[in-house]
Amino acid sequence: MTSSKHHSDEAEQPQTLYAKREKIYPRIVLGFFTRLKALSGFILLGIYYISPWIQWEGRQAVLFDLPARKFHLFGLTFWPQDFIYLTLLLMIAALALFFFTSLAGRLWCGFACPQTIWTDAFLWMERLLEGDRPKQMKLDRAPLSFRKFRIKATKHSLWVVFSLFTGFTFVGFFVPIHDLTQEVITFNLSGWETFWILFYAFAVYGNAGWMREQVCNYMCPYARFQSAMFDKDTMIIAYDEKRGEQRGSRKRDTDYKAQGLGDCINCTMCVQVCPTGIDIREGLQYQCISCSACVDACDDIMHKMNYPKGLICYTTENVLNGKPIHILRPRLFVYAGILLAVFIGISVAISTRSLVQLDVIRDRNSLFRETGKGLIENVYRLRVMNIDNQPHIYDVTALGIEGLQLFIDRQIEIEAGAVMTLPVRLAANPDLLTKRSTLVTFQLTARKNAAISITEEARFLGPIVRH
């Protein structure tokens, strides 16, 4: 009877898919890795916020001008026709992620991910106003008062201003930021500009201010498939269980080994500094972003206890098990080789790409025609696109048949980024045609810069084959 009642009570317990979130208050820790992480965040945020303000040759150095379909990156300008370069850049990013993950685990997550970087910025503002971990916890537990309201309101106001500036900077990559600044000052923003500033600001405010580790734990797919790139020689954050167990508190000068204790004093500092709230002593978990805060915290405690550092450290599973370390292994060479090949390929392609594009389209209304002078004439349409940042006048020639004549009605003068389509005629002596279809080559060259040149092949059709 008791057993039946017990099972009935269990069945009546509500089942939930997600555990209720408990706010995490990461403790401040200083050490090699946390300083390295702070430096990384400072540099990356600096690049993000400063890049739109840099000028290059009279224009914004980094600008993705969607209406004009031009993408400026310092001295380079890309067009929609250059979409292949974006594909190659995404391949490089993916291969780099695979390479560094296989080498050093979730290095991206801990030191370069935008979610991590902006969360650290929000945590810094929170500590600036609310104090360190104990003070934050005490403030949150305290009943509502004018002081608590003032501190919380100030914090969220600072978060909102920072988020709006972040959204403004984001839009500044797509709209000239000096023009955007003037529009903000005069309250003359367009609807789309307003939408994207607010949308991006809301995303940053929500993800970095409120959701924080939940983005890493539940929304980011990388945490789920990272294990596929791990092996026993991948660098990970790990707790040396053989050295640390059994855990237990003790005084500094106690002979803890005589009491059957390990080096871990069970201070829980590694848990208190973790931004995702995990206990690294329970083994590697998908929530771990490899920020290494627990390494610095544990090393600090080991130093105070006069114990060797490295109870929690960057290491590999093989090293923990007493096996030799193999950092350089086949998969790393494969990733590095492919990454290097793609990088060299895109570098060569960009450095050697032509700054003018030419399409030759035959007139489909007639195959050929005979002129009053007895010449065979073919008509083509040339579509010329100037993808340089300067206007150019182009000269065009045609080769492939002896005595081939080219007739064009106007000068080919094209502004930067503009396209011109114009008809041209080729005429050849029929006595010099040896085939019904002869390959000819159009060559287009900038008049004041011979390095800007391109060739395109076409077919010249004649009436008969001469012998």
Number of helices: 16
User: From the alpha-carbon coordinates, what is the Rg to the nearest angstrom?
Assistant: 33 Å
Give the helix level as a range of percent. 40-55%
Q: What gross morphology would you assign?
A: elongated
Tell me the fraction of residues in β-strands, as a range: 15-25%
Structural class, judged by helices and strands?
Answer: alpha+beta
Question: Residue-averaged pLDDT, rounded?
Answer: 89
Sheet of most strands: 5 strands, antiparallel
Strand tally: 16
Number of domains: 2
Low-confidence stretches: 1-11
Distance between the termini: 110 Å
Please explain how this structure is put together:
The protein is an alpha+beta fold and 467 residues long. The chain folds into 2 domains: 19-353, no CATH class; 356-461, Immunoglobulin-like (Sandwich). 42% of the residues lie in helices and 19% in strands. Strands 8, 9, 10, 12 and 14 form a 5-stranded antiparallel β-sheet that branches. Helix 2 (32-50) packs across helix 5 (114-130), helix 5 (114-130) runs antiparallel to helix 7 (146-171) and helix 7 (146-171) packs across helix 9 (191-211). The longest helix has 26 residues, at 146-171.
Write out key terms for the chains shown:
single chain, 467 residues, alpha+beta, 2 domains, five-stranded antiparallel beta sheet, four-stranded antiparallel beta sheet, 16 helices
